Every structure is written in C-alpha cells, then in structure tokens.
Amino acid sequence: MKRRRLLFSILTVLLSISFIASAIPAGAQRTNQRQRTTQPTQRPSTSTRSARDEALWQRALAIHRRAIVVDTHNDVTTPMTNDDYDLSGNPPYPYRTNIDRLKKGGVTGLFFSLYIKPWYVKNGGAARRTLDMIDSVYRAAERHPNDLMLATSAADIRHAKAQNKIACLMGIEGGHAIENSLPTLREFYRLGVRYMTLTWNNTNDWADARGDNTHNGLTDFGKEVVREMNRLGMLVDISHVSDKTMSDALDVSKAPVIASHSSARAISNVARNIPDDLLKRIAKNGGVVQVNFYSLFVDQKTVAPQSDERGKRLQAQQEALSVKYANDPERLAEESDKLEAQNPLPPLPISKLIDHIDHIVKIAGIDHVGLGPDFDGANDFPEGARDESMLPNITYELLKRGYSEQDIDKILGGNLLRVFGQAEMVARKMSRTISGGGSTRRIGK
Ligand SMILES: [Zn+2]
User: Fold this and answer.
1) How far is the CA of 349 from the centre of ligand 1 (A)?
2) Which bin fits 314, alpha (ψ -120 to 50), beta or left (φ > 0)?
3) Average pLDDT for 68-73
4) From ligand 1's centre to the CA of 231, what distance in Å?
5) Would you give the DSSP letter of residue 414?
6) Max Cα-Cα span within the chain
C-alpha cells in the first residue's frame, strides 16, 4: 500500500485536511542523505543485530523448510502488470519480490494482490484493471513452470509443496473491482481469485472503509456480496474495512474470514489494525489474522512522527509528481514510491513485529494468526523482515520466544490452510456449481 499511501498524504495535504492517525503515511527522513538507496536488502538470514544462536538458527531453518509457508498479501502484481515483470531477475526498483527470494524464504503459497486503485472508480475500468492483473499472474506461472504453479485451493498449496513449487494464488484488494455486480464477482472466482478485501482505503457503494461511516458498515448489497463469496468459496477479507464493516461481515459470513494483511491495534494504534474485541470475534468465527509487516502498522508511536516529517519534507516533490502524472495513476504511484523508497525511515527491530503475533495469540489464540507482510505494497519494514527471503527470521524469532514447532507451523501457514479448507467446505454445502442459485443482482449503473 505504499505508493497509495504517499499519494493519499499528498492529496491530504493538498486538501489541507489534517492527518488522521490511521493509514496515511506521509514520511520522513534525513534530508540530504541520498546515499542509502533503498535497494531491498538481499541478505536472507540477517536476523537481528544481536549475535545469532547458531543451533537455534539451524533448527529454525529446518522447521521453516519443512513447513507450509503462506504469505497472503504481496503487491508485486503491480509491476508485473505495468512493466511485464515476470518475477525472474532483479525486480524493478523499488520492488523487492522475485522467485529467488521467494525460494530463499521458503514460501509455499503466495497470494498476489490484485490492488485496484480508487482512480478506476472515478475514471472507469476497475474490472478491466483486475483482469489485466490476473493475466500478469497467469503469465508469470506460464513462464516459470518449474518454479511456479497457479493455485486455487488449499489442496493446490499442498501439491505445490510436494512438487517443490510456489503456489500462486490471487486476492482482489478493493471490492470496487467487481463494479457492483455479483456476476462479475463470479467471473473473478472462475478465473481463480480466492479472496476479496471488501474495501481498500476507499469506501465503495456497499461497504465502509477504515475510519469511515457512510453506510454504517455493510449495505444490504454488501451483505449479499459476502453471502455470494461464501457460496463460491472465496475468502472474505476484512483488512482495510471499518470496524462496523468487520463486525457486519462477521455477522453475515457462514465461513471463517481472513484479514489478509492487518496487525493488532492494541500494540499499534492505527485504524488499519484490528482491535481486541474484533480479534476475539474473529477467533469465534474460526478466522485468521495475517500480520502486516509495514512499519507504520507495526509501531505507530515511533513511526508516525517520522513518517509525517518525511511527508512534509517531500511534499513539494510529491506535488510536482501529482501534477506531472495527473492522468496516469500507475506511473504516479510508482514515482511516488521511488521517492519514498529513496528516503527510508529508520529501521525498527523485528521484535516489534513479533509482539503483534504474541498479542494476537494472547487475545485470539494460536489458531488465529498468520503472515500477510504486504511486501511491495509499502516501503518501510522492520529490520530482518524486509522481503520474502527473510521469512526464516520470523521462525527463528518465534523459537526464541518459546513457540513450539507445532505452533510455528500454524502461524506460517497451517492456520490459513485450515480456514481456506473450511471456506471450501461451506461453499460445497451451499452450492454444487459456481452459478448455483447465485443472484444476478447489480447495483447502480
Ligand atoms: Zn492493503
């Protein structure tokens, strides 16, 4: 969500609306210090600054290699779509995901985010943009048949593990992608999309985004969308939505839900994170919260002032970009991202990230937490957790905190697999076919 974030802050500044402590990044960093370019760090196994316990590290690696590891949110799909980047070689700056790093990180299943900018709501083309992004995932899988395989089920993820390949899954980020049409939702399911984040940061015609209360949660049509997703077996993703939308989705959904990339609000007070009462309800629903690694969501107290300072420092440059690329939202986002990446925030220790896992385990239980880092959707991440290759560090840190091997398996991917399988089961019970009794309702024009 990076570029988007920076853009948002610019707009915010332009509109001179005061900063809401939520998801608006902004940014900050030492003014003239360009020399630390943000080329994503390559080193796979830097854990923390303190000396590593080698025996524990070897144990972590062994557990990690054997486990099924699922990342439910990666935004590398944007350069795949815009630049035809196919995941081999070095990713275009400032992106950080490629096949080598995924392999080093032991990733079994990756949900490619189909993030649809709100620009497409105003200007048209949200569904087509989604189709273009889907195509980019197919293309990558077709180009690298020995490393990647397209996947649409929990069983596919297990098959990928058995074949030593990476399962490529897809999740829509922003319910506006379906252009208010249940038939379009079904088409996306047919093409392989297996989750949809009900909103991005923008409220759509049927669901409120975080911090907003236009509809008081989900509208009747929004509830119908959730029911249809249940019937299809598409996971309902409650990241980015308002607390009321979350609560409504939990009321309506017959299947366990996911938060594909959200952390704990009690630890870091941003609206994008999930408060304790809703963590408990997600546990009751059988769902899972996949922890977001983005520094602002990990440690708002430390990062928000730094991020605001950076935003102010870069404001003039940002405004110039906004004017230059007013009609090219993709290019604008990419250039804003580069600017932000060239001005990184001071690193956070990885322990701050692990604190979120601990907290969710404490409040919701060990069966309800997983990983949704948001790589390539943001620029600033904790040290040792900056790209896919570093995921073994998470396993190491969990061992250090005394998690059992069985618990670590759940966090790395077991919980997500369980939820995915249950959502598939609910769908089978509700309907035998994709069309089934599904409504053909559309709202608006
Ligand atoms: Zn997001």
Assistant:
1) 22
2) alpha
3) 99
4) 25
5) I
6) 62
Q: How many helices (H) and strands (E) does the chain have?
A: 19, 9
The dihedral sign for the CA sequence 305, 310, 311, 312: positive
pLDDT at 445: 57
Cα-Cα-Cα-Cα dihedral of 146, 148, 152, 154, to 10°? 90
Question: What is the domain partition of the chain in residue ranges?
Answer: 56-308+335-430
Q: Can you tell me the distance from the alpha carbon of 272 to that of 239, in angstroms, rounded to the nearest whole number? A: 7
In the reported structure, the alpha carbon of residue 77 is separated from the centroid of ligand 1 by a whole-number distance in angstroms of 13
The second-level CATH assignment, the architecture, of 56-308+335-430 is Alpha-Beta Barrel (3.20)
CB of 260 closer than 8 Å to CB of 290? yes
Kindly report the average pLDDT of the chain as a whole number: 91
Query: Which residues, by Cβ under 5 Å, contact ligand 1, an ion?
Result: 1
**DSSP H helices in 253-364:** 276-285, 295-298, 300-313, 315-324, 329-341, 350-363
Measure 200 CA to ligand 1 centroid, in angstroms.
Answer: 6
431: CA distance to ligand 1 center in Å? Answer: 30
User: Tokens for 53?
Assistant: 């316990």
Going from the Cα of 275 to the center of ligand 1, the distance in angstroms, rounded, reads 17
Predicted local confidence at residue 39, as pLDDT: 40
Tokens of 307: 């991020």
Give the mean pLDDT of 319-327: 96
- Cβ within 8 Å of residue 138, ≥6 positions away: 150
Ligand 1 center from residue 54 Cα (angstroms)? 35
Spatial neighbors of 232 by CB under 8 A, at least 6 apart, are 185, 186, 189, 427, 431, 434, 438
Question: What is the β-pairing status of strands 369-371 and 109-115?
Answer: unpaired
Distance CA 240, CA 246 (A): 9
Residue 381's closest CA among 370, 391, 369, 395?
391
The DSSP output letter for 179 is T
Summarize pLDDT for 174-212 with one digit per residue, the tens.
999 999 999 999 999 999 999 999 999 999 999 999 999
CA of 87 to the centre of ligand 1 (A): 21
CA of 173 to the centre of ligand 1 (A): 7
How does pLDDT run across 265-278, given as a tens digit for each residue?
A: 999 999 999 999 99
Kindly report whether the peptide bond that precedes residue 373 is cis, defined as omega within 30 degrees of 0.
Answer: no
List the structure tokens of 358: 């601990």
Closest to 97 measured CA to CA, from 173, 40, 171, 146: 40
